[in-house]
Amino acid sequence: MRRPFHDLSRSWPYVLGASLIFLLAVMGISLGFGAVTFRAQDLWAWVSGSADAQTQLILNHLRLPRTLLAALVGALLAICGTATQGLFRNSLADPSLIGVSAGAAAGAGGVIVFLNHVQWNLWGLSLVSLGAFASGLLVVWFVYRLASGVTGTSVTTMLLAGIAFTFLAGALTGLLEFIADNDMLRRISLWRMGGLEGAEATRIALMAVITAIILSILLRQRRALNALLLGESEARYLGIDVQKLQRTVIICVALGMGVCVAVAGTISFIGLVVPHMVRMLTGPDHRYVLPLSAVTGAILLVVADAFARTVMAPTELPVGLVTAFIGAPVFISLLRQRGYAGIGA
Amino acid sequence: MAILEVRNLDVAVAGAKLLHQVSFSLAAGEVAAVIGPNGAGKTTLLRAVAGDIPASSGDLMVCGRTHQQWPLLDKARQLAVLPQTSILNFPFTVAEVVALGRNPHSTGSAVDEQIVAEALAALDIAHLRDRLYPQLSGGEKQRTQLARVMAQIWRAEDAQERLLILDEPTASLDLGHQQQLMQRIRQMAASGIAVLMVLHDLNLALGFADRLLALHQGKLVANGPCAAVLTSELLHQLYGAYAAVVRHPLDGRSVVIL
Lengths: 345, 258
What we know:
The complex is a heterodimer. Chain A has 14 helices and 4 strands. By secondary structure, chain A is mainly α. In chain A, the strands form 2 sheets. In chain A, strands 1-2 form a two-stranded antiparallel ribbon. Chain B is built from 9 helices and 11 strands. Chain B has one domain (2-257): Rossmann fold, CATH 3.40.50.300. At the A-B interface, helix 9 and helix 10 of A face helix 2, strand 5 and helix 3 of B.
């Protein structure tokens, strides 16, 4: 069976361009959805600067930053997912496998329970976000140390260590929830469901810079990442420093996921499903999968967030719930056609 | 001139001595088949030569260099290795898998495409070029992987001294493709590549290798031209099996009959 995009080397600029235009269109449309609905002419008035003050306020200070943040978080999640699946050489691997999400949840819980009254922030990130980021990275570091020995890093050990630490961090979160009062409990569980409220300029700038850096680092490694899919020794025989490559990927994924979780809580399934879907279209070449996953992840999270704002308006659903509701059925349907595109253990 | 020089090589993994005082050399254009029973150290020898596992003692020079003083990328231009099993679950096309063999080179896409096309044709898989690798049969996968490692050291312009290491390349191939594959390997050798491979099929080794290296319990018990080395005594020593080595009635080559 052939792939839809059989040879992208010539059509690539058009495919990428079209997908970016589609992303912009989706972002534009999503601006209209929310507790207050804007029609096309309202949006047009806003673009041309003739909208009323309330419309200006909502779009400039709520919708636009939030849509931008959703796009960036979605992109970074999908990039991390692509890199994780490449690292584990398994197209069903999830970036949270290395323990970062569970660690972050425990860290966020810890801050919510023990540092409840500290109002302090850095680069627009609250203490909860920073705690999540730090503990997510700490867990990855433990997992990485455990999996690394004199003979190098074992990806299998890393997978198992990730599972073990995920359980440990989960138990810790459970303990924190147990000792938390009602208000804290609600904050912890809401945080875990993920949300994109509280988007503002510094956060967006931070996300944009980190996404750009991680994408460019991984894109520079695209040939090495492709070779790694053949196997670790095979990649080494092709002249690739596998140790260094693995370390680079792990650092990128840990940082990327850490920042995503810090900014938006745990948002599942984007990192798992998006690269998988993109690979079905383009094949596994990271030169195409990385950028196109980023764009697709952005589109998906923007759409999911628009859903989250609209479904129960004026109440907002946590966006993590929406991605899980969309992502799980998509994933199940992928499993049902596992013969295609060579999904397998 | 020797592409591969092995002197008194000892290899121990986790305290177990897997190779003991192995010495041999391999010249450019020479095809050597490593034979021996299961667990004799054949794959260990290949992995030590490829630089995957370090020698405990002894000398190992490939293309005049030791693995320690050989940058990975330079090495990949001169030394290509096909492991026993390769698992690739990602839906690369056959042509893309073969093109990965050109990764260590920066010869430009025109040259690379040409080489990929030649390697595909050489292994009789040109018609599969757009098929997805995970959907191929075992033999087709094997030929694709082989085309990949061949593409890696295809041209003498990229590197004059080249070594090809193959671990049971014929394992999942049918009779016709086994023969075709061995002929391709001979053609590669004729262009100056030294070939070191593990073969289980003794008659294939007799038919296509210049030299046999017989391993038994980590020791090199025989090393020399096929016809001279392969006797029914050696087979009994190696495998504990009784087999006759006779002359082929048509061309006079040695043939093993069980």
